[in-house]
Amino acid sequence: MVRQLNLCDSLFRLMKISQGPTLELPLEQVQAAFDANVFSVLRVNRAVFPHMAARKRGMFITIGSVVAQRYGAPHSC
Amino acid sequence: MTLLNADFPLSSPLPWGGIYAATKSAVHTISDALEMECRPFNIKVLLVAPGGVKSNIAANQSYDPPPDALYRKYLDKILARRDISQASPMPTDVFAKQVIMKALAPSPSSYMTLGKSAILFWFLAWFPRRWVLSYFWKRFGDIS
Question: Which residues of A touch B112 (CB under 8 A)?
Fold first, then answer.
């Protein structure tokens, strides 16, 4: 995997949705959603970070969402 | 200029998508932190905030409430809400091309938003938050 990433430099991922009432979605599903959407980002980024850092180049591309809150100056589209 | 420097919430969760939005908000914060912490290593960070993009995201999702669920009567709304991102979404290849173009730019920015309704969400970020939440509830949640 690292060899492949050395070639492509960038990392692109898509994630999982978890739909339902906040307080009635089974907690296992909530944990699975955080595992797939949040912890996956940390796991993969940690795996490739030393290799990108050693080469002083690379890019982390992360897929968020328009429904996520993000405070700060609005960016242009 | 003053307005552009003000702190505005960019976007809001939709009803029935609170957990999903919470995971994505966490990802946004992590990406912003990485944008700073990766600077010593010359690693770039690009956070993509898509609206509707063609995928199996809704088809892969089932919600089957137990018989005693308090929100059972909202099931139609919940399922309809689940499917809206896949109603005339941006084609996947168009999305991918735009992201790659941005990523390969000489000085790529660290954030982009695109896809169906991305402009709407950007626009709504300038509205009072309580108004936006009321609007989303009326449109996607309320059955009265």
Answer: 75, 77
Distance from the first to the final alpha carbon of chain A = 33
The contacts found for B67-73 with CB under 8 angstroms, 24 or more apart, are B69/A21, B69/A24, B70/A21, B70/A24, B71/A21, B71/A24, B73/B143
Q: CA of B60: how far to CAs of A15, B55, B86, in Å?
A: 11, 9, 12
CA–CA separation, B100 and B95 (whole Å)? 9
Q: Which residues of A touch B81 (CB under 8 A)?
A: 19
In this structure, the number of other CB atoms found within 10 A of the CB of residue B86 comes to: 16
Closest residue in A to B118 (Cα–Cα): A66
Residue A31 dihedral angles phi and psi, to the nearest 5°: -65, -40
Q: Phi and psi for B85 in degrees, rounded to 5?
A: -65, -15
pLDDT, tens digit, 9 for 90 and up, residues A22-38: 999 999 989 999 998 99
Give residue B27's Cα distance to chain centre.
Answer: 11
Among candidates B106, B78, B95, B116, which has minimal Cα distance to A14? B95
Q: Is the pLDDT of residue B43 over 90?
A: yes
A71–B7: do the CB atoms touch at under 8 Å? yes
